Here is the input.
Amino acid sequence: MIYLLRCNSILSDSRVLKYISYYKETGQEYRVVGWDRTNEGVNIDKGILYKKKTGYRVGGFKAAYYRVLWMLFVITKLFQSKEISTIHACDLDTAFPAALYKRLINRKVNVVFDIFDWYSDNLGDQNKLIRYGFKYMEKFTINEVDEIIICEPERREQIPYKLRKEPLVFPNIPAFSNYDFLKSDNVLAFNNKLITISYVGGFVNDRFLKELLRLVDEQLANLLIAGYGEEDIEEICRSLRGHDNFKYLGKVPYQRGLQIMYNSDCIYAMYCKVSRNNVFAAPNKYYESMLLGKPIISTKGTILEKKILSNEMGYVIDEDYNELKRLVCQFDRQDIMRKGQNAHKLWDEQFQNYSKVFLHNDYQKIII
Here is the structure.
């Protein structure tokens, strides 16, 4: 049996949902261990959920304390199971308990470490003791696991340890059997001639979102925005609800998020370079822009910059409001359409079957 571990409520995690869909498609036995951090009473088929409620972003020793409790929950559930053959652990806070379980309890279990973010690169301003603890866990985990998966080939640069074998690369590519759900939704339309930008994702202060919301307040663009997170960003969204160029849709399922982006002209995916993980960001939105045929707006100095520019499928700017404003004011609909067509051509030529091929071939070999 496969145990899939991820420290969120699962239902909005498109990468994890792809693995679950594959298990169902191929009739493989599995369990999912997740964390319902908002304690909303989430239920998941074959799911085991940790119910400890936490804030959206908590730092310092309090955050470390919550993570330790979560990891204790994970390892307890692993200890209680008698049927595990493979553990697929997403990120360090599930991979470390899995590696510990392998070292102490079951040397035969197969552990796959799926690296969504390199954990210690998010700890720049944390206490030295916390940083040391997590770096130790990273090194221990890398040495114990059987296989590693990363989101983009460039992310290999983030791993400062020698690996026994090269990691597999599985980008954050959408994967559905059909896309009828994308069909136009009149609720999402605006009754004006402004360009419509969409953002679907976490409301965090390193996504250049307050500047995006300022565009709305100055009536320079339409905005479709969905997600949740930092209270100050949510408050700005609530305050803008009276604007006729703004639609705030709250927390939405993944398919609804794709539909929202499909009904926009451009997809917003800025990543402020305050975190090294943001420099190496491998966002779903890059591949979603290909699927949907919409150009993407992102940040200079990240691994996305070269990909966007070389494929002529979007726009890259510095983290500067005046540059964002200038870009939006100079938008040309024909150029937007051309870049969207370039993006969709790349999808057709390289990525529409990538997930299926990867899961049925490379992935299946490492979970047997």
User: Anything to note?
Assistant: The two ends are 10 Å apart (CA to CA). The first strand starts at residue 2 and ends at 5. The longest helix spans residues 60-80.
